[in-house]
Amino acid sequence: MRPLVIAITTVLCAAPAQAEIVQAWCSLMWRDGPAQVEQGPCDFRQAFGNVQVWMGERWAFDFPAEGQGRYYTRRNRNDFIRFERGGYILTVFQGGQPASQPGGW
Fold first, then answer.
1. pLDDT tens over the chain, length 105 residues
2. Distance between CA atoms of 37 and 11, rounded to whole angstroms?
3. pTM of the full predicted structure?
4. Which run of H or of E encompasses 93?
């Protein structure tokens, strides 16, 4: 009976953890026309290089790892992660609302 318990425990410990959704602060800037920026709280999840971001009921973003460099660019900094795709730039501050915006915009 004891080897069975050890085997089950080993399998359970080796199971991959679910990616946790965390509260963050996001800034969404549209490149087209006059600079339009939307900012506010957002939900952020990252697992195996794949990222999902939700800004309330209005916006949902999906950045699959295999699309990096092909469909979007990603820049990791100490205090934020920036995604650039098409006509927008999404900046995610995992530590919450920053004192000021990076990048001079």
1. 444 333 333 333 444 455 689 999 999 999 887 778 999 999 999 999 999 999 988 999 999 999 999 999 999 999 999 999 999 999 999 988 888 655 544
2. 47
3. 0.75
4. strand 88-93
DSSP 2: H
- DSSP structural state of residue 103: G
Residue whose entry in the numeric block shows the structure tokens 């318990």: 5
Annotate 6-49 with DSSP letters as a single string.
HHHHHHHHHSPPPPPPEEEEEEEEE-SSS-EEEEEEEEEEEETT
The whole-angstrom separation of Cα 102 and Cα 59 is 22
Dist CA 94 CA 80 (whole Å)? 7
d(CA 101, CA 19): 27
